[in-house]
Amino acid sequence: MQYITGFEHYQEEAGTAVTLGKFDGLHRGHRKLVERIMEHVEQEPDLKSVVCFFEMTEFKKMCHLDQKKLMMNEERAIRLDGRVDYLIECPFLSVKEMEAEVFIEKILSDLFHAKYIVVGENFRFGHERRGDVGMLAKYQETYGYRLEVIPNEYYGERIVSSTYVKEVMKTGDIDLVNRLLSYPYTIAGTVRKGEGMGRRIGYPTMDIFPCQEKILPPAGAYVCKLEVDGQWYQGVCNIGKKPTVSSGEDTILSVHLFCYEEKEEADGKQVVLQLYHYLRPEEKFDDIDELKRQIQTDIREGKRHFLLTMESRRMLLEIKNKCEEKN
């Protein structure tokens, strides 16, 4: 996959199956769009698959809006790598004033040579958001593409959207967040050397500082996995300010891993954290012994979570195998 920033650097001459949007989070609804353009390329190998996302950071900064994201650009590239041919980052300000008809002609037709345009039913584009699926349908014959409008994805009675995922995130319900995304919520960060309190009380931790633009769930303890040097480890983490042992104001992801044998100093390493389950809110304990008892409980609950997950998968596999035997 080629990751390109700015339309001026895109030079592909082949026809494309293209999908467009903000793609913050790559949730279940977004995945349907991506999978559809992949299907077109599979059926017509001469085509190229293009995901074009609008980068909103500078626009939000200019409008004094919240700039926090469910997904950083690097994470989006990692998740799409090997699945599509091109990931195009379009700074929203560069097309904000472009008339919708001009966008169709200059970008979708002249630049992308679009043969298939796949969008959600609420997709809007162009100056003052005048462009919509109706306008895209209107110009199909003029520019020789076929429009496919993918119906909204629902979870219960709610449309799966980045807004909905953010609402759920505020409650700490990581289980539901992961169901809406269809993958574990992921946070990348840098390990920084702490005060060593965890090691002194028998529960060594890694202190991880995430990107400030990344949306974090409420402060508290979570079941997690951490990738260190290409290896994944199960553990539990506290997201917050560690009020029992620290007076700092920085939000830190303090992670204790169950079976990690530290081969070298982790300070400065880039790591990736995945959240699986919310355990409890962050607390300030009266003393270290009370903190240790709570950590023991968190570890026990974390291990239980992964054991139950493994057992559930085993049972589902058995059911699947029995069904296949009957057929």
Describe this structure in words.
The chain has 327 residues and is an alpha/beta fold. The protein has ten helices and 14 strands. The protein has helices spanning 28-43, 57-62, 73-80, 100-111, 133-138, 140-143, 162-171, 174-181, 197-200, 288-326; strands at 2-5, 16-21, 48-55, 86-91, 114-120, 146-150, 154-155, 158-159, 185-192, 206-210, 220-228, 231-240, 252-257, 270-281. It has a six-stranded parallel beta sheet, with helices on both faces. A hairpin with a 2-residue loop joins strand 7 (154-155) and strand 8. It is elongated.
Query: How many E strands?
Result: 14
Order of helices and strands: EEHEHHEHEHHEEEHHEHEEEEEH
Helix count from the secondary structure assignment: 10
Beta-strand proportion: 25-35%
Class by helix and strand content? alpha/beta
Main sheet record: 6 strands, parallel
- The amount of helix comes to 25-40%
**Major β-sheet strand ordering:** 1-4-3-2-5-6
Give the CA-CA distance, first to last residue: 40 Å
Name the overall outline. Answer: elongated
Average pLDDT confidence is 90
Give unreliable regions as ranges.
Answer: none
Rg is 23 Å
Fold blueprint:
Elements: E1 2-5, E2 16-21, H1 28-43, E3 48-55, H2 57-62, H3 73-80, E4 86-91, H4 100-111, E5 114-120, H5 133-138, H6 140-143, E6 146-150, E7 154-155, E8 158-159, H7 162-171, H8 174-181, E9 185-192, H9 197-200, E10 206-210, E11 220-228, E12 231-240, E13 252-257, E14 270-281, H10 288-326
Parallel strand pairs: 1-4, 2-3, 2-5, 3-4, 5-6
Antiparallel strand pairs: 7-8, 9-10, 9-14, 10-13, 11-12, 11-14, 12-13
